[in-house]
Queue: 2 jobs
Job 1
Amino acid sequence: MEHTDPATLLAWHIAMGADEAIAGECVDRFTAPATTLQPIAAPAQSQNAHAATPQPKPGGPRRVEAKPVQAISGAGQAAAESAAASCNTLDDLEAALKAFDGGLLKRSAKNTVFADGTRGAALMVVGEAPGADEDRMGKPFVGASGQLLDHMLAAAGMGRDKDVYISNVVPWRPLGNRTPDQAVITMCLPFIRRHIELAEPKVVLMLGGVSAKALLGTEDGITRLRGRWKELDLNGQKIAALPAYHPAYLLRQPHLKGLAWRDLLAVKRKLQSL
Ligand code: URA
């Protein structure tokens, strides 16, 4: 095979979403005996099911059960609604989220990524979901897109260390950095809505289509939504909210940084006017 530079291959696997070890040992599929790659024969009729189950050959690859990609088998939206509604402080909400049965997504994550930044800040930034760096560190936006976000905020005279509070719609890392599916977003929505309510920002900046669509309850795409002021209604509490491009998207489409900068300045002006 050409192009077998290990670093390139590793980067390609990560980009394809193959970023998790699913077995304790490496298996060289090129040298594995051909018989182990054959489809497993249907078990013969038997009183004893175990007798008919094909056993792995010693030395052959271990069979690994396929894992559902992002199934949600957790407590669901109704339980999320009631857990979120019962919280009266951000600490309560963080504890409730950590105790919540978020299904396979939560079980596959290292951390429940709750928030970072300054509680009580006038600006709350809401992203999509943690990536690998955020999952490892337990904080939102600490990877490459977080660094871009921090630079942009700093250029506008803001920062999470003083006047910005940051969270995500989904607090658990989707496997393989996929876009969280709708069932997961629906389950997590009561928590992020309550999170905003309790954080009481004056302005919410929704980064990316997942965040904007979930919080605004719309199917419109981010290209149409960005830069247009909306209002979130959280149990009667009205909060100005602006959809904007996600920094991860800006890293791939740097020519859009000008529009993102314009949106950030609009946020700054709005904050000064309130
Ligand atoms: N992207 C997000 O939407 N949130 C994070 O925390 C990191 C990357």
Job 2
Amino acid sequence: MTKKESKNDDNFMEKIVSLAKRRGFIFQSSEIYGGINSIYDYGPLGVLLKNNLKKAWLKEMVQLNDNVVGLDSGILMHPKIWEASGHLEGFSDPLVDCKSCKKRFRADHLLEAEGLKPDFRPSEFKKHDLKCPECDGELTDVRDFNLMFKTFMGALESKTSEIYLRPETAQGIYVNFQNVFNSMKVKIPFGVAQIGKAFRNEITPGNFVFRMREFEQMEMQFFVHPKDADKWFKTWQERRMAWYLSLGMDKKKLKFRDHKKDELVHYAKQATDIEYDFPFQDRELEGIHNRSDFDLTQHEKHSKQDLKVNDLEAKEKYIPYIIETSGGCDRATLAFLIDAYTEVETRSGDKDAKHETEVVLKLHKDLAPIKVAILPLSKKLDKEARQVYDMLKTERMCDYDVTGSIGKRYRRHDEIGTPYCLTFDFDSLEDKKVTVRDRDTMKQDRVAIEELSDYFRERFNQ
Ligand code: ATP
């Protein structure tokens, strides 16, 4: 079966969810208690994959740019921040309930599904007289539903102790703009990058880790002179697309979607989404926005601090514009999993396998959770094979696997995307060589044990 056919399969997402669970990538949170909707836990391999993704992002954004620095700000912040940012007032989704089956929907999604313009002002929405898509029941009027999670800080649960879990990481960067500017040798243009958790009480979560209520963002805010904003918007738009491609994502599945003027959020001058062709309706992987001087102007107003930069050379004082790149770790992880998922004719030699096809996860080497699997052909070779593992594990993430038939072990490592499987056989005792199999080409090399480090360093580029 070819890759394309398998992805058009109706059950494709079920296959991904099942693989993710079976092989320890992603679990439903709190599963033994029946699960909690829209929260997921990353298992032993999922955490390795997601961390590799974050490492690749930090390398691309911080390590390779001398004008981008990192930050890790708090999840809980001063409540006034959400007043200044507009989240308290405007961070809401338009919501309708079905009066019969009690299901809840986003009004904009219902309109979109009908091919109507997503104008969900109550009066406009009423005009269309839409019915519940599940049971055809009558819908309530549209209500705004704030997506921020609220909690209390301190011992008293009162209005004055109300505080929010951040719905985006961006604000933590804006409120530290002055700190970063004054403590680092940065000059406009420069960026601040941050990876961290964000929380949104989404009304219609779903599609596995695509839309969750607790998720992780990778955001970079780039501060520029207003006259350079268009140029930087274009630069970052291209750079971000190139990043997904550099990690092996299928070019045919990726595209830009520019926001039309009437679709732009109030703070944005220009916006584009990088979309991945997920096997469901939602598409957005990452957003690139020209946020103008909105954020720093708002924080200047609300904090009463001067957030302008003083450009001595140009003899000019101004509030920088911000170009934002805002992606989700979980959506990217899901997209890479989907993209890498490939069904091939049986090739592992696993005699117990019930199916004629096997799954190979063709993850980019930098993303693969396990880089090299060390597989002794027999338990009798345990001691010597383990010495090879002990040597290689100091250099990269390896797995030592001695249980089950060799076919079963190959199959497992194909399914989790291990780029190289190394077998230690009886000849290895004599010739001090092992066989290394390449996941994608299936080519086998006989490599001297003492040359293994160099062999892999060359192939992993590190
Ligand atoms: P959508 O329209 O899909 O709700 P958004 O436009 O609200 O997304 P942003 O606020 O721009 O998204 O957030 C930036 C990125 O954070 C998104 O591109 C996405 O990758 C990620 N993200 C946003 N909401 C969620 C969520 N509920 N679950 C997982 N990732 C999310």
